[in-house]
Amino acid sequence: MPERVLPADGLASLERGLGIIFALDQHAEGLSTADLAQAAGIPRSTVYRYLSVLERYGLVSPAATGGGAPVRYVLGNRFIALASHVPVEHELVKRALPLIVELSNRIGETVIITQVTGLQAICIERVESPGRVRLSFEKGAVLPLHAGASARVLMAYMTDAEVQEVIDHVGLARYTDNTITDPDELRRVLAETRARGYAISDEEMDPGVRAIAAPVLDRTGRARAAISVVGPRFRLDEAKTAMVLSLLLSIRDQLSAELSETAGAREGGAAKDRQY
Question: Coil, helix or strand for 38?
């Protein structure tokens, strides 16, 4: 069957529809059509047409408002069904979960797993500490790759071209006074991170929060995920940071070795099958 390629106007329509979805993803409280037009950069009349189609497929829905306020739209429940079919490295999470639960219990801090998704990072698992602290790292949260150790340690293992694409298309937004927003400084920090094999950040995404992160690498040296400990700086002082880092690197090495063994076993099995 010949490959079907969308015409240029079809691709433009797809991008506009995705722009509406991604705008709603950043605003859980919902957006009015005027807000969506501004966020997506398209005319308000066009927004109505796209919302009509997206609502028909269950991808957006109007939220209840009162007092004559403008109708606000939120993401639809269809995304819940779609999310259940996403293969979010089930084997990796299955192997990592007992390790990060044990780590969180031992150190009393929140531990998360992040992965690259497109030109951003996403938190795919989170084990909460007993002393809850407000963080940007909720499970399912999409994070900028350049800000904070939990995401930047993944960026350190991307190619130069991929890093440039993030800079060009996503940008280096500032979240706190400590966020790295200069491309040259970012490249220098990424090189340092890759050389030492871990990242530490202070208050780059959330005030008062320190993050310590290590990548889980596959056989090719590509970062498949990152394991990170996040918590308030007053608890993660230098002594505790050193202790946490040692434990984190041990988990990193164990998971990376298991990934390599699993990949090797699969390749061996595939080669054996081809002999018959």
Answer: helix
Q: Among residues 94, 100, 192, 199, which one has the least CA distance to residue 145? A: 199
Question: Which of residues 85 and 49 earns the better pLDDT score?
Answer: 49
3-class secondary structure per residue, 178-200 = CCCCCHHHHHHHHHHHHHHCCEE
Rounded CA Rg of the chain: 21
H or E element, residue 92: helix 90-107
Taking the domains of the chain in order of start, what are their residue ranges?
A: 8-80, 90-268
The answer to whether 134 and 206 have CB atoms below 8 angstroms apart is: yes
Average pLDDT over residues 214-227: 91
Name which CATH class applies to 8-80.
mainly alpha
Q: Are 59 and 50 in contact (CB under 8 A)?
A: no
For the segment 10-36, what is each residue's pLDDT rounded down to a tens digit? 677 888 888 889 888 878 788 899 999
Predicted pLDDT of residue 81: 74
Helix %, strand %, coil % of the chain (to 5): 45, 20, 35
DSSP SS3 for 60:
strand
pTM of the model: 0.69
Topology of domain 90-268, CATH: Beta-Lactamase (3.30.450)
Give the CA count within 13 Å in the CB-facing half-sphere of 92: 25
Nearest to 112 by CA among 8, 214, 221, 264: 214
The CA–CA distances, whole Å, from 65 to 13, 26, 53, 56, 169 equal: 29, 19, 21, 20, 34
How many CB atoms sit inside 10 A of residue 82's CB? Answer: 12
